[in-house]
Write a structure and sequence with these properties.
Chains A, B, C, D, E, F: This is Acetylglutamate kinase. The structure is a homohexamer. Helices cover about 40% and strands about 20% of the residues of chain A. In chain A, a hairpin with a 4-residue loop joins strand 9 and strand 10. In chain A, helix 6 packs parallel to helix 8. The first copy, chain A, is an alpha/beta fold. Chain A has a single domain, classed as Acetylglutamate kinase-like (Carbamate kinase, 3-Layer(aba) Sandwich), CATH 3.40.1160. Chain A has an eight-stranded mixed sheet with strand order 5-8-2-1-11-13-14-12, with helices on both faces. Chain A contains nine helices and 14 strands.
Chain lengths: ~280, ~280, ~280, ~280, ~280, ~280
């Protein structure tokens, strides 16, 4: 690469740096990008770079595979109802322990790359208030929760002081109980409560594909109003549905743009935020 | 109790409230007081009360028994060298998970009693920098660490904003590794780094007894200069030694007063801080 | 008293400390509690304690008996019209001198007990603007005034800087003249202007008694809407009427709760603010 | 006066306004200027004008004649020892009452002319700490005090918030007793404690005269080093001695310039501060 | 002048100092007062004096004669259309150079008299956004502009920090081009954007005269509603029309008072602002 | 360029962004980079980018060629003494006018690219105090000056508020006269006064070449201690000498690193600050 080409990349980033200066960006971090060491390094590098150019990243992470592993090691069997894990008390204890460990790992990695991470859960300063969520047919599935309120004060304090908050998707009920919440929903609610400018959800697919079997059929933008038709045509289905749902919720709550990105592409966050490069699918108002 | 007696208690508290106004008090929380539900409630009530009258409590907690329990459940055997658990990588993973869960439990309890707790570990914002500690005969005992540096910025920020920080005794090495550190030592180092006014260590005994078998032989104050003689006479020995050690370190680091209290007495913190009541042993300069 | 009982009193105070944290409480200080040395000490102790736990007390004091004494010493005869002293110019001069002296005495006592008192009159920074008040049958009774405006800036400044303001009930007219104002009314108007949370009026009776001759018939709460009936039934009469009047005014001005307390009970303010103890009568919305 | 002459006066004031901008000027206010209504008006106008152009005046006032009058009215006889009034407890009570009344009168006059005065005594927030002063031959002369410490915090607070503080020369002892202090000495100590730029003492003579009987022999400046010779030659004697003493003390404490002005000349403060006009005597380092 | 007369002038200024304390005054500076050295000195003295007594002057200056001189020296001929100079690119370059030099000259003079001037043009921080203005019959007259937007942030910043801003009437178009704007209009728009209290326009006549040939026929005040009649009667005409226009615009934009003063009278600004002296014509709502 | 390569450039910039965050960088802008439109655009883009990532650029510009052109147009002949232009009063007038115009042009270009430029000269708020500089043999060469003092307050204020200051190298003498100063020296003095982290001098050569005729012989770093030898060997000579001189001065004044860059390379500032690319010569302590 010539010096001039290098300079060109930096100059290309300028309008984006200007645009997002002082803005908050919420990132749902999960899947492959959380397991592969090289991708992990790339994601965290992107977060630290954002912070240094004046953007405020807020991370909400998942942890499904590690939770399953630990439950297995402890001999705790999981039952599933409509795709949701029935979370009894011993299971919930494991969920909290594993998420807590992952949370501090990400935090530590941020610190090693020169950022200043702070690992939080929804219990800290009552950050995430949750209520019990019932399964498909109104079944009791234990300590599975949904967000009823976000108290963003603590996150705002640490953001203002220059830290990068990393948040576990554990909420606390009015009764003091802990609840396990889907991280996509926490990210959406957090983006709304923080009046974030952007919500980025990392996944393990290219984005939304017109034809699921053809990566070249990526839809770079879908509009909220077109979603019902996409569902009807079967383009939107399965695990992508709740993610799109969160994007729509966030947009309705005032978030400017929402993105479903391919977390398997190194630096996909960086490319989305700072370049003209099309990566993944934007869900737009 | 007559109204006048009630008023008397409040009036008795006045000079202490004045004395500690705006001061930081570091509390090592562990042992019985962390297992018994009623004592837990009492300790947390004391913390919240302190915060409301303008004192800044900072909690460092332990977690030995729960760690042992979880290791057993996972079938991880522990080896001990000179009283210290050899902490290999799988053991350290469990240590972090269990401490993380306990940390958020205390946080949550504080929130329920009207405080605003924030659970942190030494990894958050590089709060506790650790180095590997060798066993008795320079043996490698794994990820057991000692504090080499405290970066108190994050704790100061949350204190200033009205939160109560709860800290797990996990440090991070220059190499990015996690280290398990004795909570007494973390509390001492934290008190020093925060320029705390007071260090309180909760234990499961009455304090330092002249005659170990006679609770009425409690020494209400010992001076730093008298410690060698107390060791010689066998009054100070066993698990009490590192606690006294931390007190001495804290005093040398500028902490005004240090206390070893009986955590089995409900509200022992409150009584120590706000009344003329003699509880436990003060280690004085 | 056992240590646990002591701790119990402090714990009982916790919700009240939380509730009133950062709030302003206006206290009308007069009568017996201002003459008896032991009661004086107790009242001032209560004020200092409140300040130290984060509450902002503001004191408005009276001074009737001392004024009468000084007028007698100076051979100035007082005429009364409908219970109000006709206040000519020489009388007014004495009123100001005596109130000024009492004001600085209270201030000084606060300072000796560790608070930081500042003695003010309504003339300082035009704190209390007054207008001439006529006697019962529109008679001219001299420099007797009523509050027309409060300029609370100075009081807010000294509160914010940690001082306890003590205020003499002397107002200044648009014409620059001094006016003597009933301290109850000044306390009520001050509570309203400062958006106080609580107004406490110290008196020399138990509170409002259903049967004036039976102290056990104390009404612990009366509602604003029930006052006309209480007047009709003769329960409310005489000197209690203007006090109740001030409470009603304050409530209508946004003050949360108002209390008529027995100033002869030591630490009645403390008991009212920090305990579940029923003392005196609350006038509630 | 032509418009141009008017403009000339304002332009002449410019360098003085610049020079004293943000500086503190302590004024001892007493004597004739405090009795004559027109002079009173002129002095207060000067204070308000100073405040509006960014200078911070602080007033310390006396009150001798009014105190004597009130003592007489109350039939309290005064005994004098070496020129100092023996101040027993009833006398001290009168001193405080009279000074308090005068204090609030000046305050009120400032407010009427558009300033924002705050009347304080040395008891407010322990502003003036005093110790008992003995008479000429170590005689006990009662509650006559001398300044041992100034706690200027309260005065600094009100100055910063735009108020003009008016201070009575009453101090408080370590024992809580009130002491009557010579106002010149209070002004000098206050100037020193506030790091004032200028100290102005208003008197009832032209200044220091070479020949006491010849007003045209005014010394416009005397140097500290020349004072002993002036005393030897009898130029400096009587009541002028303590005033010069205060000036010297203030200069040694860091005050830039000190002035003994003729309070009988209307607006003498204004002329001294804002014009080239020579008024009174400057005591210079 | 006697000392008392001097004091009288200062005292007369007091209510004006009070009235304008902290207020912004925009001054259009041009004509004779900008050429004559003595008048220049007087104007700048007035500005510095205002700043020192807490008023915030903002200067907008012209520069017609010097521009004409430089164009002549460079052999650039000027064409006029309806009284407006056709401003082609080489002419505009000269306009900017000359205004820039004059701007820094005024700034420098302010600094020499003890103020802290900062010279700005409408290009600094996009202070003045302009649009092309067409000549009388919609003719293209080059880079002559009119104000479309004021971005007052930079001026507010320097005012707050104690500087006196001096502004050249050069605006910048959305296209990045420079535009020459009539200084009267810039002053009016600036007064409006800064929410100024007063707008002063210096001219080379006595003000608005009922009879142009009789200086004694000065109208000291005209009301906005009377302007059409004054135009009809021929009292208002020629170069006075745009000045009155600016005053009306400013008044409609919330400016309290606007004045057309005789810049040939030394210290006319001072006399207008600080004395009862009638100078020039006030255009009032 | 692949997306990954793009991301790589941004990631390469991260450590530099961290390193210079909140630091001040002074840039001497002159020569070819100030004449060529494309280079001008590139330089200004670099400045705006720096500002957006939290670095504070301060620009000092020259203007030799344009000054010469305007002098010629006005028929003012220039005499040179030892390479320095004899600057009489008419010449100085032209210098100021031309620099002023260039200054606002750069400012305006910054604003168009999204920055917030403020154009200043050394006369604003007495930013640059200058003294007359004599020619080679102590000859009077008119208004040529050297920096004697920098008053950086105004520059610090505008930096803090987010503006980019652009400074003309015109100083003001104690006598109020304007002086033309070599821009390299102004940049060096400014870097020192602002405690800048870096000084960058743009030139029209590759940097310091070992062999003047061989661009590949560029010295990427020279040490202060090696300069005398480089002068002896003839490597350092001519116009490069004063530039190296300024660098040495700045280093001695506490500036961390100084650079002589080739202003003909587009984005040379960007490459120097944000990449590992070697551009020009660093003068190092």
């Amino acid at each position: 690469m010539t010096p001039l080409e290098k300079a060109g990349v930096l100059v290309e980033a300028l309008p984006y740096i200007k645009k997002f200066y002082g803005k908050t960006v919420v990132i749902k971090y999960g899947g492959h990008a959380m397991i592969n060491d090289q991708l992990k390094q790339a994601v965290v590098t992107d977060l630290v770079l954002m912070k240094f150019v004046g953007i405020h990243p807020v991370v909400v992470h998942g942890g499904g595979p590690e939770i399953t592993g630990m439950l297995k090691r402890l001999g705790i069997e999981s039952q599933f109802v409509g795709g949701l894990r029935v979370t009894d008390s011993p299971t919930m204890e494991v969920v909290e322990m594993v998420l807590g460990k992952l949370n501090k790992e990400i935090t530590s990695l941020i610190n090693r790359l020169g950022g200043r991470g702070v690992g939080l859960s929804g219990k800290d300063a009552n950050l995430i208030i949750a209520a019990k969520k019932l399964g498909g047919e109104q079944q009791d599935i234990g300590f599975v929760g949904e967000v009823t309120e976000i108290n963003p004060g603590l996150v705002e304090t640490v953001l203002k002081e220059g830290y990068i908050p990393i948040i576990s998707p554990v909420g606390v009920g009015r009764d003091g109980e802990s609840y396990n919440i889907n991280a996509d929903y926490v990210a959406g609610a957090m983006a709304k409560a923080l009046k974030a400018d952007k919500l980025i959800i990392l996944t393990d697919v290219e984005g939304i594909l017109e034809n699921r079997h053809d990566p070249s059929s990526l839809l770079s933008t879908i509009k909220v109003q077109d979603i019902p038709a996409l569902v009807d045509r079967g383009v939107l289905q399965g695990g992508m549905l709740p993610k799109v749902d969160c994007c729509v919720e966030a947009i309705r709550g005032g978030v400017n743009s929402t993105h479903i990105l391919d977390g398997r592409v190194p630096h996909s966050i960086l490319l989305e935020v700072f370049t003209d490069q099309g990566i993944g699918t934007m869900v737009a108002p």
